[in-house]
Structures are given as structure tokens and as C-alpha cells.
Amino acid sequence: MILTGLSGSGKSTVLKTFEDLGYYCVDNLPVDLIPPSAKWYVNRGSEIERAALLVDAREGDQLEKLPARFKQVRGEVPAQLGIH
After folding, report:
1. Pairwise CA distance, residues 6 & 18, whole Å
2. What is the mean pLDDT of each run of 10 residues along the chain (84 residues)?
3. pTM of the model as a whole
4. 58 to each of 8, 10, 36, 54, 55, how far by Cα in Å?
5. How many CB atoms lie within 10 A of CB 36?
């Protein structure tokens, strides 16, 4: 799960909810670190089964890379692992 939003929009509250639901949560993840983070799913030995990654909208120009990074992850991570 990749979350993003403006300051004050409730991102941290939503991220805490995902954490309560058993997700491994990362706050303020730089956009360029999304593809390496997705490898948690590929590594079958990993204890991380579900993750919520929060990207701050204040990333500025880096946020423009989000669609390309998401597409990259979808191409690298097998579909059965839940990248939608």
C-alpha cells in the first residue's frame, strides 16, 4: 500500500491504522526508495507480509516520479503478491 497526501490530511492517522491492522509501516519514504522496498515482498524469507509506505506530498519534484516508480514495482513484483 502506498499512501500520500498533503500536510494535515490525516496521513499519520491512516498509517497508524494500517499498523494496528498488522502492516509494516514506513513514514516519509523517499519516492526513489519505493522499488527497493517492494523487494520485501519478493524475498520469501522476509517476515514482512504487508506494508504501507507513506510518501509525503512535500517531496516536490520527486513526487512526479511516483507513477513511474509504481509502474516499475508492478513490473518487478509478481502479481500474486498483491501489488495493485
Report:
1. 18
2. 84 94 90 82 70 83 85 71 46
3. 0.72
4. 12, 14, 21, 12, 9
5. 9
